[in-house]
Write a structure and sequence with these properties.
The chain folds into 2 domains: 247 residues, Rhodopsin 7-helix transmembrane proteins (Rhopdopsin 7-helix transmembrane proteins, Up-down Bundle); 130 residues, no CATH class. Helix content is 77%, strand content 0%. It is elongated. It is an all-alpha fold. Helix 4 packs parallel to helix 7. This is DUF6545 domain-containing protein. Keywords: Membrane, Transmembrane, Transmembrane helix. InterPro entries: DUF6545, MAB_1171c-like. Pfam families: DUF6545 (PF20182).
């Protein structure tokens, strides 16, 4: 078959064309870097191996599918268009890893091991056979003219190459349909963690977007068979769809880990901030601030603040008036506060009273053996109560009145 030669002056900037391939490659690489420690640590876990294989093959696909890399591969090997079956091999392996992922993800329980092994063998053998057939077809095809971007449509009518193109697109379409369908069905199940559900949504959209890649390629190829020119679907729409799909899939893997990590960091910082009011009050007891290290992690700063507060409360415990705490609790309940809030307000009133008693008679021994369990365990609730001075003032004013006076007034 005779193919038209590329027109003069149509040489394109391969570096510029490679940018849409490098960007999703970087995002996928970031996702792989985030998952890699878990994959190495728990290598025996087939699910983590499937995730690692998926991300690795995805990175390889975008690396070798970039026009600049295609030109380099053809030049180094000296075989025109040999980059095509190599990229198709990586893409087929990626499709297999999608299917292996959903197989292990959905049916990872021990009672499903036999079914998982059977499904795994089917996926590996079928897609390995696809790869072998593709290389045989490429060896039989006549593809002397190097095509960097439009090989699928340029050789759409070429014997053996035509079958090779249809084979890899069929394998890609089937994997996309099955994977996206299973992921979307899983999203509808109950009991999923919020971050995992969001990650699955991005994965579902990403896998579904892969169908646009296959549809664009197939439409352009069929158009060539019927004598029409829709090559722009192959050279513009399909790469864009692949770029978007890969980015969404990478984000889908990143969200559960990054989201959980950021959520935990936010909770730590919020607790550290919530303890500020109580820590500020305890400085008057300890006569100093809690230890501060600029390079300390958020967790370490929280631990130091909590330790500082509890140490100061223990120092203050000899001035705790247990009777005042009981009266303050009853008063808070009488004022309409719910039990948890009433307990925190009563503790705050008792601590403020103890701080004043300690200032007035620092060397005085306290009476009795006050129960400081709540104060030491619920420092966050007490600190929250200290940020409501009007409520504390109302409780404290009524709690300071003897019980007989309160009943007379009421």
């Amino acid at each position: 078959m005779t193919h038209p030669q590329p027109a003069a002056g149509t040489v394109e900037s391969l570096t510029g064309l490679s940018i849409p391939y490098w960007l999703p490659g970087l995002v996928l690489g970031a996702a792989l870097a985030i998952k890699l420690p878990s994959i190495v640590k728990l290598w025996r876990d087939p699910l983590l191996r499937a995730v690692g294989g998926l991300l690795l093959f995805a990175c390889a696909v975008f690396l070798f599918a970039a026009p600049s890399t295609i030109a380099w591969t053809n030049r180094v090997t000296g075989v025109p268009n040999i980059a095509a079956p190599w990229v198709y091999t990586l893409l087929t392996a990626l499709c297999a890893s999608w299917l292996l992922l959903v197989v292990h993800w959905r049916d990872g329980r021990s009672e499903h091991h036999a079914r998982i092994r059977r499904a795994t063998r089917w996926v590996i053998w079928v897609y390995a056979a696809v790869v072998v057939v593709m290389w045989v077809l490429f060896a039989l095809a006549d593809v002397p003219v190097e095509r960097i971007r439009d090989l699928d449509t340029y050789y759409a009518d070429t014997p053996f190459m035509r079958e090779l193109i249809l084979l890899y697109l069929l394998a890609h379409t089937v994997a996309s349909l099955i994977t996206s369908g299973l992921v979307w069905n899983w999203i509808r199940t109950t009991g999923l963690d919020a971050w995992l559900r969001w990650g699955l949504r991005f994965l579902g959209v990403g896998f579904a977007t892969n169908l646009l890649f296959s549809a664009a390629k197939l439409t352009a190829v069929v158009a060539r068979w019927t004598g029409h020119d829709l090559d722009w679907l192959n050279t513009n729409i399909a790469p864009a769809a692949a770029c978007v799909a890969a980015t969404l899939v990478a984000i889908g893997f990143i969200i559960p880990h990054a989201g959980q990590y950021l959520h935990e960091r936010w909770l730590v910082r919020r607790r550290h901030r919530d303890l500020r009011a109580l820590a500020r009050l305890m400085r008057t007891v300890a006569g100093s601030r809690e230890p501060l290290a600029l390079r300390a992690t958020a967790e370490m700063r929280l631990i130091r603040r909590e330790t500082f507060i509890r140490d100061a409360l223990l120092q203050l415990s000899r001035f705790i008036d247990e009777d005042l705490r009981v009266r303050a609790y009853d008063t808070a309940l009488a004022l309409g506060f719910e039990r948890g809030r009433a307990q925190a307000l009563a503790a705050a009133v008792t601590i403020l009273d103890a701080v004043e008693a300690g200032r007035q008679a620092p060397d005085t021994e306290g009476d009795g053996d006050p129960d400081t369990t709540y104060l030491l365990q619920e420092i966050a609730a007490v600190s929250e109560a200290l940020r409501s001075p009007d409520e504390i003032k109302a409780v404290r004013a009524r709690a300071a009145v003897p019980a007989e006076s309160m009943s007379t007034h009421d």
